Amino acid sequence: MCTRQSTRRRILGILAITTICSHLAVDASAQLPFGEAIDKEAKAGAKGYQWLFWSTEHIGHRLTGTVNGTKAERAADSLFRVAGIEQVSYFPFTAQAWQRRSVKLTITDRDSAWTVNSVALAHTPDSSRVKAQLVDVGNGLAADLLRVGNTLRGRTALMNLGLLQAPPGTHNLHRSEKTALAIAAGAASILFVNNVEGHVLLTGTASVDGHPIAIPVACISSEDGALLRMALARDSSATADLSMTNSNAAVTARNVIAEIKGSTKPEEVIIIGGHLDCWDLASGATDNGLGSFSIMDMARCFRALDLKPARTIRFVLFMGEEQGLLGSTAYVESMRKSGELENVKCMINLDMTGGPFGFNVVGPMGWAEVVRGIGDGIALIDTTFKNDLNQHAGLHSDHQPFMMQGVPVIAPMSDLGGHVYGCYHSSCDDIHLVDPRRMVDNVRFAGMLLFALANADSLPGHFTDEALRDRLQADGLEEKLRLQKDWRW
Fold this sequence. Notes:
14-stranded mixed β-sheet, globular, 14 strands, Aminopeptidase, alpha/beta, Glucose Oxidase, domain 1, single chain
């Protein structure tokens, strides 16, 4: 009985994918190997975790513009070739990239002075020193800045990265957006307080548009933030002396691209991508080794099965994401100018993805239905995939340049747990956080979606410019995009 039910479930899964996903363009007799073959090969031949482990041991961090970044590019090129992909290439680009040098933070109140551990945030000045009175601006949102009024001008803003004691329904802003608001309010420097316990320091960009900012910005730990607030309670005139040196310089880096040419619709392209680079405080195992090394393993899986998609599948590993979406922005702009972007049917982005349970879809009418249909079939093949569907547009990852040109974007949804998210952009983002099974599930579930989209008889189109504007406004992104100087309407 169990065997018959299992067989029936597998057959129903394949039929659901075939029927709902616009009748995949393969022979009906080949439907059964489609889902089960990817499922079997992803588990039996898995290499993603092994490759990521090697990278953390032999390369370390993968920051764009560094020797390590170049090593990561070369390693990815080699791994795609080891996977059996014949068409592998680099997409070189030149951009301003930030690198940290030194930082020192000294706090002084009426009783004493002490040094606090800190890390500089990206796009801060090459050289700066600010000694100024501390002002606690809470969560650093617009309402918090209104509360302190002109008292922030010429002083150091102390603010939370996350939300603490915020009214219900309050939406947080990205650290770069908080920085922009504080600069507009006259802050001379900024200290972000990380919300993760354990003396964890976090880095990341403090610039909304990827250009250098005029003031020093650093992050301190949750524990030190509490001490600073105690100092302010004792002495409201306590000061922060923040000095740093960094580098903002032009660098040349390379996206790494592997391609499986389409058999019947080679001019139409499905892109699956994720950023290969990471910050320099650790090895970037979860952000974004989880996504980028899963993509390489997905290419291996497809090649091992000798899958022949109707459309061209392009696996793209982007550099420079952490320093301002540098690689993806350059790539999209190049395709826009050449006219090739019109043939990109959609972009699937794997950024800190592990063990997907559904998909977030941002596209015009028809896209959610297509993805839901494919997900229904995947869920019948493996019931651990819940096929949750979300349709909320977001920013700050490599899908953004594609989305802003109207290309539909899809992202697998995951819940990696607080122990992982607390280490993002920090010194604890290392291989011990990675569950190999989550990487295998990336290949299984995102791989099934990818192959189904590449073989659908037809797919919905791009956003019109007006429809994209309306969607971004509906999802509350106009203010954020204006801060980024990326609102064109």
